[in-house]
Every structure is written in C-alpha cells, then in structure tokens.
Amino acid sequence: MATLKLYRHPLSGNAHRVEFFISILGLRADYIDVDLMQGEQRKADFLQKNIFGQVPVLVDGDKTIADSNAILVYLASQYDYDHIWLPIEPAKAAEVQRFLSLAQGPVMQGPANARLVTLFGAALDHQRAIETAHKLFNTLEEHLADRLWLAVDHPTLADIANYTYIAHAPEGNVSLQNYPNIRAWLNRVEALSGFVPMQRCEIGLAA
Ligand SMILES: N[C@@H](CCC(=O)N[C@@H](CS)C(=O)NCC(=O)O)C(=O)O
C-alpha cells in the first residue's frame, strides 16, 4: 500500500476528522499543509485535486478523494476490514449516514460557522450560528441521554465526523457547559484508541 497523502490545514475541523480516522485505522500518511490564508487552495495546482478549492483532500496511490465525509467513507470501505466504522447492515449504514449528513449540515451552520467568525473573522452572522449550535446541542443532549454513541451501539464514522466541531465549539463562543451528556460523549470519543487532538485556539473561549 502506498503512503497516504493528506492535504489539510492544521485548524480545519474537516481535515482533523480525517487525520483522526487515519490514526484510528493505524495507517501511515504524509500531511501537507495548504496555506488557506494565502489562497493556495484556489491555485490551479490545488484545483486539480479538488475543483471546489477546499481541504481536506486525500491521495491514495492513483486515487484522489476530496471532502471529509467522502474520505471517511473511502477509508472505512478500503481499510476497515471488519466493517466496524461503517457497518454493512443496511439500517446501521443508514443511521451512520444520517449523522454524516448532520456533520455537514447543522454542525457546519452552527458550531463550525461560529468558530469561523471568532478565529478567522468570517463575514457570517455570529449570533445566528450560536443559536443554531445551541438548538442542535439541545437535541443531541437528549439523544445522548440513553446511548453512548451517536448512531449505533458502538463507535462509528458518525462519532468521528461530528466530534471535532462540537469539541471546539467554545472557540466560537458556544459554551458546552449546559450539555453534560455531550461532554461525556466527547470524553468517550477522546478515549478511543488512536485519538489525536486538533490544535486548540485561545481566541474567544467561552468554556
Ligand atoms: N464539505 C467539505 C468542506 C470543506 C471545507 O469547508 N474546507 C475548508 C476548511 S475547513 C476550506 O478548505 N476552506 C477554504 C476555502 O473555502 O477557500 C468537507 O467536508 O471536506
């Protein structure tokens, strides 16, 4: 197997999800930082890897895969021989997919966008992102009241995909103080063998 190459940015939660899963699977990868602040992602060379000009992008031999969910699904299908992280059984697979959608929907519109404002000065409605995050967290808090993991009765891609931006919500001034079930779930994810943290930022910390 060729060494994987991951094009990423050290503060990108989308890239972190993939780094985390590469580590869980015990795979080797070279990490290539893309200078998003200098617009490297919009240069022709990078656009050949991802027409949408975004990290993460994974290169595995002759295959180039962009988008964090797509990469997680690829890695699970290609290298998780026991089909634990992306179960084959249709109802379980659907449940995991449901939470992959959550990671690209409300999690982006809420905690991820709130963090984009505080860390990178993004021209987004901060208040609205904070409200979206709390609405989502109230629902997840209830969801996690009687289960350990988001999708099924063991950790899956659902947990990997949603972890990063929820764990880093305080960087966007979204406190996790009122969500003990979510914090307990974050602790369980961090206790998984192979967990690697994303760099934390000290700007705008709420809790
Ligand atoms: N749906 C994509 C979103 C990727 C994304 O938003 N990447 C951000 C960094 S977290 C990026 O590259 N932004 C640079 C830009 O859009 O110019 C994924 O999950 O990979």
What does this 3D model show about the protein?
The chain is an alpha+beta fold and 207 residues long. The chain folds into 2 domains: 4-79, Glutaredoxin, CATH 3.40.30.10; 90-190, Up-down Bundle (Glutathione S-transferase Yfyf (Class Pi), Chain A, domain 2). Helix content is 47%, strand content 9%. It has helices at 13-24, 44-47, 68-79, 90-104, 106-120, 126-143, 157-167, 180-190, and strands spanning 4-8, 29-33, 57-60, 63-66. It has a 4-stranded mixed sheet with strand order 2-1-3-4, covered by helices on one side. Helix 1 (13-24) packs parallel to helix 3 (68-79), helix 1 packs across helix 7 and helix 5 (106-120) crosses helix 6. The radius of gyration is 17 Å and the shape is globular. It starts with a strand and ends in a 17-residue tail after the last helix. The mean pLDDT is 96. It binds glutathione. Glutathione binds at residues 9, 12, 14, 36, 41, 53-56, 67-69, 104.
